[in-house]
């Protein structure tokens, strides 16, 4: 996938705007993704500037009239460095863009980091994405976090993981959901097991 191009699912994960809302904005042509063919399928890809607008939607711009939202979206995409947007040339309503841009940049950096931490190999856990150098599925860690497990608890069960790897797991799962039939999850309902090596006493 080209740099500066993100699927609607990735955009949703980064901007914290529900995927259905992202898809609706595409349907009403408030944002217009670039289309790229990948095999027999056509992917819809969004730019980082469009992600900034989606972040503004998540922060409350969605409450404005559609015509106003369209004006904001066009301004954000046309002027990537704009810090604020005054609606209709007035000063009564000003949209602050800088903070939303910072948040998107930070989340994209987190997404880049977690992508580098994860690998998917058919020979390892049936292709489930796992942390490099381990057989620990990212989905499992994200599920544990969603069920309320503290980072410290997860580290205790899986000492190979760092706090950062654990905190980034939900972002990876949200940005890269597994497609097709429900994947088999051989790790489900298993408790983490710490493995220690003991030196055998000399005979």
In short:
The strands form three sheets. A two-stranded antiparallel sheet has the order 1-2. Strands 3-4 form a two-stranded antiparallel ribbon.
Explain what you see:
The protein folds into 2 domains: about 10-110, Orthogonal Bundle (Multidrug-efflux Transporter Regulator, Chain: A, Domain 2); about 120-175, Arc Repressor Mutant, subunit A, CATH 1.10.10.10. Residues about 195-203 have low confidence and may be disordered. A hairpin with a 2-residue loop joins strand 1 and strand 2. The longest helix is centred in the middle third of the chain and has 20 residues, at about 100-115. It has helices at about 10-15, 20-25, 50-60, 65-80, 100-115, 140-145, 150-155, 165-175, and strands spanning about 35-40, 40-45, 85, 95, 120, 130. With about 200 residues, the protein is mainly alpha-helical. Helix 1 (about 10-15) packs across helix 8 and helix 3 crosses helix 5 (about 100-115).
